[in-house]
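Consider the following input, taken from an annotated entry for Glycerophosphodiester phosphodiesterase (Aliirhizobium smilacinae).
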Amino acid sequence: MTAPIHIERNGHRTWIKWHRGRRRLSDPVFTGERIIDAMRLGASVEVDLVIHADDGCAVLHDLDLDRETTGSGKVRDTGADTLRQLHLRDDEGRPIAEKVMLLEDLCALLAREGVHPDALLQLDFKEDLQALTPQVVANFGKSVAPIAGSLILSGGDFDAIAMLAKAVPGIATGYDPCYGESLARLRATGDYRGFIEQALVTAPDARMIYLAYDIILAAEDAGVDIVAPVHAAGRRVDAWTINRITPQTIAQIERLLRLKVDQITTDDPEGLAKAIRQ
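Applying the prediction step yields:
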Protein backbone atom coordinates (compact mmCIF):
# COMPACT_ATOMS: atom_id res chain seq x y z
CA MET A 1 0.00 0.00 0.00
CA THR A 2 1.02 3.65 -0.37
CA ALA A 3 3.19 4.79 2.51
CA PRO A 4 1.25 6.85 5.10
CA ILE A 5 3.10 10.14 4.77
CA HIS A 6 0.62 13.01 4.40
CA ILE A 7 -2.91 14.03 3.41
CA GLU A 8 -3.74 16.65 0.80
CA ARG A 9 -7.01 18.45 1.51
CA ASN A 10 -8.25 21.70 -0.10
CA GLY A 11 -4.75 22.82 -0.97
CA HIS A 12 -3.32 22.13 2.48
CA ARG A 13 -0.92 19.33 3.35
CA THR A 14 -1.25 17.58 6.72
CA TRP A 15 1.53 15.20 7.67
CA ILE A 16 0.82 11.88 9.37
CA LYS A 17 3.25 11.49 12.26
CA TRP A 18 4.30 7.98 13.27
CA HIS A 19 3.89 8.12 17.06
CA ARG A 20 6.76 6.40 18.91
CA GLY A 21 7.98 4.98 15.62
CA ARG A 22 4.82 3.02 14.78
CA ARG A 23 3.64 2.55 11.20
CA ARG A 24 0.66 0.45 12.24
CA LEU A 25 -1.11 -0.21 15.53
CA SER A 26 0.39 -3.69 15.90
CA ASP A 27 3.98 -2.39 15.81
CA PRO A 28 6.06 -2.29 19.00
CA VAL A 29 7.39 1.14 19.86
CA PHE A 30 10.87 2.60 19.36
CA THR A 31 12.32 -0.06 17.06
CA GLY A 32 15.16 0.86 14.74
CA GLU A 33 13.54 -0.98 11.84
CA ARG A 34 10.39 1.14 11.85
CA ILE A 35 12.21 4.43 12.48
CA ILE A 36 14.52 3.77 9.53
CA ASP A 37 11.48 2.82 7.45
CA ALA A 38 9.86 6.18 8.22
CA MET A 39 12.98 8.25 7.63
CA ARG A 40 13.77 6.58 4.30
CA LEU A 41 10.22 7.18 3.09
CA GLY A 42 10.22 10.85 4.05
CA ALA A 43 7.72 10.52 6.88
CA SER A 44 7.35 12.42 10.14
CA VAL A 45 8.16 10.20 13.11
CA GLU A 46 8.42 10.75 16.86
CA VAL A 47 10.50 9.19 19.62
CA ASP A 48 10.82 10.08 23.30
CA LEU A 49 13.98 10.81 25.29
CA VAL A 50 14.81 10.36 28.97
CA ILE A 51 18.16 10.86 30.69
CA HIS A 52 20.25 7.88 31.85
CA ALA A 53 23.02 7.54 34.43
CA ASP A 54 25.87 8.28 32.01
CA ASP A 55 24.53 11.73 31.13
CA GLY A 56 23.03 10.70 27.83
CA CYS A 57 19.53 9.98 26.59
CA ALA A 58 17.67 6.70 26.09
CA VAL A 59 14.92 6.34 23.49
CA LEU A 60 12.15 5.61 25.99
CA HIS A 61 8.98 7.33 27.21
CA ASP A 62 8.88 6.42 30.91
CA LEU A 63 11.29 7.52 33.62
CA ASP A 64 11.10 3.96 34.98
CA LEU A 65 12.17 0.86 33.05
CA ASP A 66 9.61 -1.67 34.21
CA ARG A 67 6.77 -1.14 31.73
CA GLU A 68 8.67 -0.59 28.48
CA THR A 69 11.69 -2.86 28.93
CA THR A 70 12.96 -6.04 30.56
CA GLY A 71 14.80 -3.91 33.13
CA SER A 72 13.66 -2.43 36.43
CA GLY A 73 14.28 0.74 38.37
CA LYS A 74 14.77 4.27 37.08
CA VAL A 75 16.36 5.09 33.74
CA ARG A 76 18.26 7.90 35.50
CA ASP A 77 20.02 5.30 37.67
CA THR A 78 20.90 2.94 34.81
CA GLY A 79 24.08 3.15 32.75
CA ALA A 80 24.39 3.10 28.97
CA ASP A 81 25.88 -0.40 28.70
CA THR A 82 23.13 -1.90 30.84
CA LEU A 83 20.39 -0.12 28.87
CA ARG A 84 21.73 -1.45 25.57
CA GLN A 85 21.29 -5.02 26.85
CA LEU A 86 17.62 -4.57 27.79
CA HIS A 87 14.86 -5.73 25.49
CA LEU A 88 11.80 -3.68 24.66
CA ARG A 89 8.31 -4.98 25.47
CA ASP A 90 5.25 -5.02 23.23
CA ASP A 91 1.83 -3.65 24.21
CA GLU A 92 1.03 -6.90 26.01
CA GLY A 93 4.17 -6.65 28.12
CA ARG A 94 6.00 -9.45 26.28
CA PRO A 95 9.73 -9.00 25.59
CA ILE A 96 10.62 -8.62 21.91
CA ALA A 97 13.89 -9.17 20.06
CA GLU A 98 14.67 -5.45 19.68
CA LYS A 99 16.71 -3.80 22.40
CA VAL A 100 16.65 -0.33 23.92
CA MET A 101 18.41 2.28 21.82
CA LEU A 102 20.36 5.27 23.06
CA LEU A 103 20.12 8.59 21.26
CA GLU A 104 23.64 8.38 19.85
CA ASP A 105 22.98 4.87 18.55
CA LEU A 106 19.82 5.98 16.76
CA CYS A 107 21.44 9.04 15.21
CA ALA A 108 24.47 7.06 14.05
CA LEU A 109 22.17 4.42 12.55
CA LEU A 110 20.20 7.03 10.61
CA ALA A 111 23.37 8.79 9.45
CA ARG A 112 24.67 5.47 8.14
CA GLU A 113 21.43 4.30 6.52
CA GLY A 114 20.51 7.68 5.05
CA VAL A 115 17.30 9.70 5.35
CA HIS A 116 14.87 11.21 2.87
CA PRO A 117 15.20 15.00 2.55
CA ASP A 118 11.55 15.41 3.64
CA ALA A 119 11.85 13.15 6.68
CA LEU A 120 11.50 14.69 10.14
CA LEU A 121 12.36 12.96 13.41
CA GLN A 122 10.82 14.54 16.49
CA LEU A 123 12.85 14.11 19.67
CA ASP A 124 10.34 14.60 22.48
CA PHE A 125 12.28 15.34 25.68
CA LYS A 126 10.26 13.98 28.61
CA GLU A 127 12.16 15.73 31.43
CA ASP A 128 12.57 19.32 32.61
CA LEU A 129 15.25 21.95 33.01
CA GLN A 130 16.27 20.67 36.46
CA ALA A 131 17.29 17.34 34.95
CA LEU A 132 19.85 18.93 32.66
CA THR A 133 23.56 19.15 33.44
CA PRO A 134 26.30 20.63 31.24
CA GLN A 135 27.42 17.09 30.36
CA VAL A 136 23.92 16.00 29.33
CA VAL A 137 23.67 19.06 27.07
CA ALA A 138 27.11 18.44 25.56
CA ASN A 139 26.39 14.75 24.95
CA PHE A 140 23.06 15.63 23.34
CA GLY A 141 24.75 17.99 20.92
CA LYS A 142 27.40 15.45 20.01
CA SER A 143 24.81 12.70 19.48
CA VAL A 144 22.47 14.57 17.16
CA ALA A 145 25.00 16.60 15.15
CA PRO A 146 25.25 14.07 12.24
CA ILE A 147 21.52 14.40 11.38
CA ALA A 148 20.54 17.70 13.01
CA GLY A 149 18.90 18.98 9.81
CA SER A 150 16.35 16.15 9.95
CA LEU A 151 15.36 16.73 13.58
CA ILE A 152 12.94 18.78 15.63
CA LEU A 153 13.44 18.90 19.40
CA SER A 154 10.29 19.28 21.49
CA GLY A 155 8.99 19.14 25.02
CA GLY A 156 6.75 20.70 27.64
CA ASP A 157 9.53 22.69 29.35
CA PHE A 158 10.70 25.14 26.72
CA ASP A 159 13.57 26.39 28.91
CA ALA A 160 14.98 22.86 28.80
CA ILE A 161 14.43 22.63 25.05
CA ALA A 162 16.17 25.97 24.50
CA MET A 163 19.17 24.88 26.57
CA LEU A 164 19.55 21.61 24.66
CA ALA A 165 19.11 23.44 21.35
CA LYS A 166 22.06 25.71 22.13
CA ALA A 167 24.31 22.69 21.71
CA VAL A 168 23.03 22.15 18.16
CA PRO A 169 22.97 25.43 16.20
CA GLY A 170 20.10 25.52 13.74
CA ILE A 171 18.10 22.59 15.13
CA ALA A 172 14.33 23.11 14.89
CA THR A 173 12.37 23.25 18.14
CA GLY A 174 8.77 22.69 19.18
CA TYR A 175 6.68 23.32 22.29
CA ASP A 176 3.82 21.39 23.91
CA PRO A 177 1.77 23.51 26.35
CA CYS A 178 -0.74 20.72 27.04
CA TYR A 179 0.09 19.20 30.41
CA GLY A 180 -1.73 17.89 33.45
CA GLU A 181 -5.39 18.87 33.52
CA SER A 182 -5.03 21.53 30.82
CA LEU A 183 -8.22 20.53 28.99
CA ALA A 184 -10.27 20.56 32.20
CA ARG A 185 -8.88 23.97 33.14
CA LEU A 186 -9.59 25.37 29.69
CA ARG A 187 -13.14 24.07 29.71
CA ALA A 188 -13.63 25.68 33.11
CA THR A 189 -12.18 29.06 32.11
CA GLY A 190 -13.01 29.10 28.40
CA ASP A 191 -9.83 31.10 27.80
CA TYR A 192 -8.67 29.27 24.69
CA ARG A 193 -7.36 32.44 23.06
CA GLY A 194 -5.27 33.28 26.11
CA PHE A 195 -3.97 29.71 26.23
CA ILE A 196 -2.62 29.76 22.69
CA GLU A 197 -1.31 33.32 22.96
CA GLN A 198 0.64 32.34 26.08
CA ALA A 199 2.07 29.28 24.30
CA LEU A 200 3.39 31.46 21.48
CA VAL A 201 4.98 33.88 23.95
CA THR A 202 6.50 31.09 26.07
CA ALA A 203 8.23 29.49 23.08
CA PRO A 204 9.13 32.32 20.69
CA ASP A 205 11.53 30.14 18.69
CA ALA A 206 9.31 27.05 18.41
CA ARG A 207 8.48 26.17 14.82
CA MET A 208 5.82 23.64 15.84
CA ILE A 209 3.19 23.94 18.58
CA TYR A 210 2.04 20.50 19.75
CA LEU A 211 -1.60 20.54 20.89
CA ALA A 212 -3.73 17.73 22.28
CA TYR A 213 -6.35 17.17 19.60
CA ASP A 214 -9.22 17.25 22.10
CA ILE A 215 -8.16 20.77 23.16
CA ILE A 216 -8.25 21.89 19.51
CA LEU A 217 -11.73 20.43 19.09
CA ALA A 218 -13.01 21.71 22.43
CA ALA A 219 -11.87 25.20 21.43
CA GLU A 220 -13.74 24.91 18.15
CA ASP A 221 -16.84 23.77 20.05
CA ALA A 222 -16.49 27.00 22.06
CA GLY A 223 -16.27 29.02 18.84
CA VAL A 224 -12.50 29.55 18.95
CA ASP A 225 -10.03 28.48 16.25
CA ILE A 226 -6.69 28.02 18.03
CA VAL A 227 -4.92 26.78 14.89
CA ALA A 228 -5.32 30.05 12.98
CA PRO A 229 -3.29 32.25 15.40
CA VAL A 230 -0.43 29.76 15.30
CA HIS A 231 -0.41 29.97 11.51
CA ALA A 232 -0.64 33.76 11.69
CA ALA A 233 2.52 33.72 13.83
CA GLY A 234 4.32 31.72 11.16
CA ARG A 235 4.30 28.46 13.14
CA ARG A 236 2.80 25.04 12.53
CA VAL A 237 0.40 22.86 14.56
CA ASP A 238 0.67 19.19 15.46
CA ALA A 239 -2.51 17.55 16.81
CA TRP A 240 -1.79 14.62 19.14
CA THR A 241 -2.58 11.68 19.57
CA ILE A 242 -5.13 9.62 17.65
CA ASN A 243 -4.53 6.21 19.19
CA ARG A 244 -7.00 4.08 17.24
CA ILE A 245 -8.90 4.57 14.01
CA THR A 246 -12.63 4.27 14.70
CA PRO A 247 -15.74 5.98 13.25
CA GLN A 248 -15.51 8.49 16.12
CA THR A 249 -11.84 9.31 15.56
CA ILE A 250 -12.33 9.51 11.78
CA ALA A 251 -14.95 12.22 12.39
CA GLN A 252 -12.48 14.00 14.68
CA ILE A 253 -9.72 13.72 12.08
CA GLU A 254 -12.01 15.27 9.47
CA ARG A 255 -12.57 18.23 11.80
CA LEU A 256 -8.82 18.61 12.33
CA LEU A 257 -8.28 18.58 8.56
CA ARG A 258 -10.90 21.30 8.12
CA LEU A 259 -9.04 23.38 10.70
CA LYS A 260 -5.88 22.85 8.62
CA VAL A 261 -3.63 21.34 11.27
CA ASP A 262 -0.20 20.69 9.80
CA GLN A 263 0.37 17.29 11.37
CA ILE A 264 -1.68 14.57 13.06
CA THR A 265 0.05 12.23 15.47
CA THR A 266 -1.24 8.66 15.50
CA ASP A 267 -0.35 5.16 16.63
CA ASP A 268 -1.85 3.81 13.39
CA PRO A 269 -0.59 5.82 10.40
CA GLU A 270 -1.60 3.12 7.90
CA GLY A 271 -5.08 2.88 9.38
CA LEU A 272 -5.50 6.66 9.29
CA ALA A 273 -4.35 6.94 5.69
CA LYS A 274 -6.60 4.08 4.60
CA ALA A 275 -9.65 5.57 6.36
CA ILE A 276 -9.13 8.95 4.70
CA ARG A 277 -8.72 7.37 1.25
CA GLN A 278 -11.99 5.49 1.70
